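the two lines:
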Amino acid sequence: MSADLPGPVMVAAGCGGTGRELEPYAGPDGLVGLDLVTRSITLDARAGGPGPRVAEVPGGLVNAVGLPNPGLEHFLATELPWLVRAGARVFVSIAGSTMGEYADLARRLSRAPGVAGLEVNVGAPDEVGAGLFEVREPYHSASVIAAVRREFPSDRPVLAKLRPDVSRIVEGARSCHEAGATAVVIGNAVPAAFPDGRAGGLSGPAIAPVALRCVAEVHRALPDVPTIGCGGVHDVRSANAYLDAGADAVQVGTALLHDPTTVARLRAALAPGPRNDSRPAPPEENR
Amino acid sequence: MPDERGPARGSVHPSVHVDGEVVATKRVGGYRHLTLTAPGVPERFRAGNFVAVTVAGHVARRALWVHRVRASSAFGPTLDVVVEARGSGTAWLAAQPVGARIAITGPLGRPFALPKDAVSCLLVGEGYAAAPLFPLAERLRERGCAVSLVVSAPDEARLLSALEARRSARSVTVLTADGSVGQRGTVADHVDDLVRRSDADVVYAAGPHAVLRSAAGAAERAGAWSQVAVETPTPCGTGLCHGCPLPVVGEDGVERVVRACAEGPVLRGDRVRWDALGDDR
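prediction for all of em together
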């Protein structure tokens, strides 16, 4: 593997605010050493969608937040330096409306001090990422990853965040890995609808079995492709389910909205374990 | 107006996530008042802050205004919240008995800015959301401000009692839409007159968007400052999810969308883009 994988516990994109809001709950070390994926950053600022952006459903949340972010310039000038100073290992989630935008984002972030790696958002549920480059086809996702990889130093990870669609996930993971993704994050919110029919994405414990199935399928078909499980992780048991299915790390998202101390508890419970010392991921037979 | 709110959160008095306990509960009209212990929260509280609580079986949090803080009691420091049972989550909260444990995060959000000088202040609130005006009135009185308090509601059952606030307020006005108690009418009907009569330098408002908007408008027409506590659904309450958009005009004159929970809930009334925010009922 070309780069150190993060983990075993990461903060998922879009669920850590700007980082500052998480710090009071991040435990005795604050954000120091925490693998944090930022909310998705686009070249230009996005105001995000209208309210209500989030609806509660049994076992999860439906959201159509719409990727609000201040744009790359502002992020580089304010949010990123703060995160770096706070000691976080910053993985910048990037989203673009064209392949060129993804490449631009990757190039400029490659020069920014303190960026540990990138996470390429190629799995936003329909409509939520309205205006984004169409990456539902594995071929297109792979093209984006290749464009990003060309602009970003090979010694730092590029993660591909894919939607947990079990019918396409193995193909998507293979394509993205072949295109240069260090690991694949499985998955994103599942395409869903608000009670009034508006399009959104479902996250939380409700989607854990779906994402877990996807991780297991990818691990079975592509044991050499590192995976990061994301979906419904809220305690040690739900995190271990992914790790036992072959994931190298997990991301905590919606659970932070329910209990902002979740990542601190999981880091304390999982960090010193043998899995953490075994990076990069061992071959399957050792697990 | 000088802004003495200081850092929003995270540096001097970071918020905490703690295990709280219900130590008293009583029904008052259409609402349930809960007294809670929440170690560290009352000590850090400033008027206008809110708390987010966990509801069993629900992923999203419930945000609650703080009605009163006691620095000491038989249970140690406590805070009072007012719950209106409007859905399954708030119904669960309202039903919690003494001794129930509830995870509480707080204090959250930016509090009311307090004037440096002993100026005249009009406080206008409606329904349960008027709660943050009560600790505010105490703080203002400590600073020597002349406090005029207006509590309004659709009807008597949804009126927060102003009895205890009479210690802090120079005058108290009660409004109900149906005239069941106090003067008949809404905040919008009376607010210009109230601002004039109280000779207010600052108008503080808490309640539904329509109340905030009319209070902010009256303040502007009278040349007074306004501070409004905006209530909008906050899925996490902590600023993590960006799920509570609040359209504002920044101090640089640029329109943007901020988080009600993190950059709010208290904002200058003339900074809120009311048309874009819409109605909350």
